[in-house]
Amino acid sequence: EIVMTQSPATLSVSPGERATLSCRASQSVSSNLAWYQQKPGQAPRLLIYGASTRATGIPDRFSGSGSGTEFTLTISSLQSEDFAVYYCQQYDDWPTFGQGTKVESK
Amino acid sequence: QVQLRESGPGLVKPSQTLSLTCAVSGVSISSSDSYWTWIRQSAGKGLEWIGRIYTSGTTNYNPSLKSRVTISIDTSKNHFSLKLSSVTAADTAVYYCSRGPWDWGQGILVTVSS
User: Fold this and answer.
1) Shortest CB distance from B62 goes to which of A42, A94, A99?
2) pLDDT digits (tens, 9 = 90+) for B15-25
3) Residue B89 DSSP SS3
């Protein structure tokens, strides 16, 4: 099983600030990495796939980077609707998720 | 617009089989070149991929659940299903169905309890 580790567990950010979330894989997953956003009571929503490709309708303030074992999700200027939990998922092998990073208002 | 909706019992007794169905609308499940997935989320284990099925009928399962899971597809009803046998309290979770990574159902809470 490929273990995905996200950091930090919680990120406190003010609106308008930049948020940087990290995800590490226990072995290389190439670029087979997705990011999801989840708000309370809702299903996860796909933001990024292929490590850096935005899904349809996702604002360009969301960007993904990395390959191999180290990945980053950056939200360039946090909006109020961006406060949520973010998960990374690898799909190089059978899919596994990270434990999530909660982005909260500072 | 593609929509998915999970349905099934919200309460299952230990050792019984959990059965859920995902109704798909907005796209024909047989003509889609995507795959159809079940994922669950619990407080203890976070998001856990259960398995997927392709329109061809090919399935892939989480190795840790493989011995207890069956995913099937019914193109005539435009839905796909999940069966998880010999459930325990550890199987209590919100269960989601999805079309690839793109479209997700709202989720259904299934509690395993006597």
Assistant:
1) A94
2) 999 999 999 99
3) helix
